[in-house]
Specification:
Length: about 160
């Protein structure tokens, strides 16, 4: 069980959270939004990003797998996370049944480029007081990029 936090720490965390929302327009996730706490995945966030940025590729997947297309994406992601760190998957993308998906768009060199609009679709969110693991361990903040978060517990950093 996590130790009870002192009021000054909670006040400071709340101040940080309010700043991130006010100044950076980050979204706040509820614990229930993180549908896979073991892998730190907020599935609806990633799915919305893919629909907004790669609708044509998703359509191809849906043409072959119908309603199971979404599950195919998350099955492939979980399998890849078994042997690759998240940062590597973000960098190289995710292959799903022969199709390639980008999981984020870096800031383009020119805001006039075609990539600028897709970069604007990136979703940066956070979850204060994230609970994970079999014993409901708590971490103060987890940041998510397009529904993908990462926490470090000992030597197992993803």
């Amino acid at each position: 069980m996590a130790k009870k936090k002192k009021a000054p720490e909670l006040t400071f965390q709340q101040h940080i959270a309010e700043f991130l929302v006010r100044e950076h327009k980050y979204g706040v996730l509820e614990q229930a939004d993180i549908t896979d706490t073991g892998h730190c995945i907020a599935e609806d966030q990633l799915w919305a990003f893919l629909k907004a940025t790669q609708a044509d590729t998703l359509k191809k997947l849906e043409d072959h797998y119908g309603a199971d297309a979404r599950e195919e994406v998350f099955r492939a992601l979980r399998k890849e996370l078994e042997h690759s760190p998240l940062w590597m998957i973000l960098r190289h993308g995710l292959k799903v049944r022969g199709l390639e998906f980008r999981l984020y768009y870096p800031k383009p060199r020119s805001m006039e480029s075609a990539a600028a609009a897709k970069h604007g679709e990136n979703r940066i969110t956070f979850r204060p007081h994230f609970y994970f693991g079999e014993t409901s361990q708590e971490i103060d903040f987890v940041f998510f990029l397009n529904g993908l978060g990462s926490i470090c517990c000992g030597n197992d950093c993803g």
